[in-house]
Amino acid sequence: MTEVRFYHLIDQKLERVLPQLLELSLQRGWRVVVQASSDERVEALDAHLWTYRDDSFLPHGTSRSPDAVDQPVLITANDGNPNHANVRFLIDGAPLPDDAANYDRLVLIFDGNDDEAVALARERWSQAKGQGHDASYWQPDENGRWVQKA
After folding, report:
1. What tens digit of pLDDT does each residue of 9-33 get?
2. How many domains does one find in the chain?
3. Which domain holds residue 118?
4. How many CA atoms lie within 13 A of 83 on its CB side?
C-alpha cells in the first residue's frame, strides 16, 4: 500500500519546504521524483535547488538531463519515473499518478492560502482513499515542525 502524505503550507513557501523534505528523503536513502506543473517551473526549481542554501548540496537534475536515470532527485513536468524513484512529490496541483501503487510514498504539497489548491487537495485525498492508499494530512505547528493532523 502506498503512503500518501498531504502537506498543507500555511505560512511557508514551497521553495523553503521542498528542499528540506528532499534532504530528509535522501538521508533515508530514497530516490525521488518531483512532478511540477510546467517546464518553466521545473527550470525555476532546478535553479533554486542549486542556490537555496550556501552550506548544502542537494544532488538533483531534470528530466531533460542526459543522465536523468542516475539522478537521486529528478524534477519533471511529466508523469514518468525515469530515475526509478520510490518517492514522488506532487506540487502545483500535479495529479496522483496512474502508477501510484509502484511508489512507497507520494507527497502532495499544497498552498493553504489558495482556495483552488485546497479544493484540489481535497479531491486528491478522496481519490487516494478511494484507491486504498494510506493517506495522512500534515500541518506545521507554531515552531514550523510538521505534525500529523489526520
Report:
1. 998 999 999 999 999 999 999 999 9
2. 1
3. 3-148
4. 28
